Amino acid sequence: MSIGVSTELPVSAGLQRVIGQVVADTPGPTLLCTASLHGNEPAGLRALEQVFSRLQADRPPIRGEVTGLLGNLTAVARGQRFVDSDLNRLWSPEMVVALRAGDTSATGDTEEREAAELLAEIDSVVARARGPVFCVDLHTTSGPSPPFATVSDTLRNRRFALPFPVPIVLGLEEHLDHTLLGCLDLGCLDGEGRVTMGFEGGQHDEPSSIDHCEACVWIALAESGVLESPDSLPLVLEARDRLSRTVKNLPKVVEVRHRYALKACERFLMLPGYVSFQPITESDVLAKDARGDVRPPEAGRILMPLYQRQGDDGFFVVREFRPFWLAVSAFLRHLRMDMALHWLPGISRHPDRPHTLRIDRRVARFYALQIFHLLGYRRRRIEDGTLLVTRRKE
Ligand SMILES: [Zn+2]
Q1: What CATH number has the domain spanning 18-246?
Q2: Distances (CA, A) of 88 to 37, 137, 189, 205, 217
Q3: Residues of the chain with CATH 3.40.630.10
Q4: Could you give the count of Cα atoms lying within 13 Å of 8 in the half-sphere of its Cβ?
Q5: Please, are residues 147 and 138 in contact by the beta-carbon 8 Å criterion?
Q6: Which residues have beta carbons under 5 A from ligand 1 (an ion)?
Q7: What does the alpha-carbon distance between residue 80 and residue 204 come to, in Å, rounded to a whole number?
Q8: Residues 376 and 338 sit within 8 Å (Cβ to Cβ)
Q9: In this predicted model, what pLDDT tens digit does every residue of 277-312 receive, in sequence order?
Q10: How far is the CA of 144 from the centre of ligand 1 (A)?
Q11: How many whole angstroms separate alpha carbon 228 and alpha carbon 231?
Q12: Residue 20: its H or E element
């Protein structure tokens, strides 16, 4: 069975921004699912269609709201990742303001138009919310992969994501600027950060990727509290069972250690046969480019090897993050140990940004970045030779 969308379809034919929507009479949480921000990833769209038709047929008791939104209509109709620019890399605070004002580039960028329409729908879902808002963004990968979740490492996001029976990838957001989830997580819409989780269902055209995305949405309905009695629903139990069978023997939590970013004209070619979470060593040749063999800077496991032409992440290297350290970091964050970090030599508070520390790396080279990660600091950036790390609101 192929889940590809025919490229012969006229642009956006038959596709609608709102895939499905159920607003319950009883107030409660909101679950906002987005799918196909990348047009060559139709599995999330198909999965949401299936969930909404089941919700309509079975009518399980729900409270609050669940809405499914389609990301890039034009690119889905064409079966390609994007038309002019990546719809999942443009969500800066400035762009959100420009999109709302209808004040985007005069170049007629397809994705800016898509983003303006999508943002209008998200704004109305958020404005209508009668409880916490949970955001789940469904994706698939170009290479073969078991399903996994990507989580920006705040305690509230962990609480939501850890019950999903799939590996959790922490720290991807540190490497990807201006994603939609990053924007929702940081509160770019209205200053209030939302609970967010990304989900990768498997390879783009694998029929099982639809099943994995559908399972994710059922579990999200349960974990967000939108379903009133999830444990009595066989669909939720089946969903948990289906995902846990697929990811047997994989680590529960991994942390991104390295992103291999593609530069233009490098003629990057991933060698065949790599699968997400496959162990790799420093001597493994993963890909070729204009300069020759590409090896990882450290051993670990490979994540999302690039097997498509569009996109600029060659691959990621991840490493297991032991549950013990998860517990330690939750404990340290509850104690607000981060309040004392600037007392250490070489570390100072940023004068203008309240949650940002400046690290003089000549003095503070002995504090591993890991310590800052444990305390919830991410988003490293170098400015004037100084390392900046910013902590997200828990
Ligand atoms: Zn994607």
Answers
A1: 3.40.630.10
A2: 6, 10, 15, 20, 20
A3: 18-246
A4: 0
A5: no
A6: 38, 41, 139
A7: 11
A8: yes
A9: 999 999 999 999 988 999 999 999 999 999 988 888
A10: 14
A11: 9
A12: strand 18-23
